[in-house]
Amino acid sequence: MNRWISAVDRTIVLIVGIALLAAGAYAIAWDAGASLIRTWVSRLDREVLFGLPEEPWWHWVLSGTFILCVFAGFGLLYLNLRRRRTSAVTLRHNESGTDVSVDLGPVADGVAAELAQLSGVRSTRSKATIDRGLPTLSIVVTADPAIDVVGFTTSAEHIARATRRSLDGSPVAVQVLLHLDRVEASK
């Protein structure tokens, strides 16, 4: 998730949380008979307060607030649910000085294929995404529960380092997640 989107989401949750906390504190204070709350409520001009929906501008403000909230809600949904696919990474060939564009999807598939050849690996899934602003090759490996985890980790780190070297100078992370299958119950 993008840091900016994450900050907006957290700010909205903070504002809603503070509003709910204030409403809950008010309700508890009212129920407890707190004189300060009852004094504040008694000072409200009830005729003005109950007359607000009869004002000519009330429906426009209510409609505008509704439309603004709908657009803000759909906008946040779009930003949070959109696919964060990587764009091609540009590599510079040192000897010739030319730029080469590399699509990270097939690179992730290649890393997954290498990991699939390790002993104990049952399946792999790969994707190239943007994780916190960094292009990331994410490979999920499903393996036999009896796999040598230390040996697998060493091999996976070696493959990840080789991949990073082949993408010389580009800011790309390689993430390998190991999931172990369930151990079958003995009969």
From TrEMBL:
It comes from the Bacteria. Keywords: Membrane, Transmembrane, Transmembrane helix. The chain crosses the membrane at residues 12-37, 57-79. It comes from Rhodococcus erythropolis (Arthrobacter picolinophilus). This is Alkaline shock response membrane anchor protein AmaP.
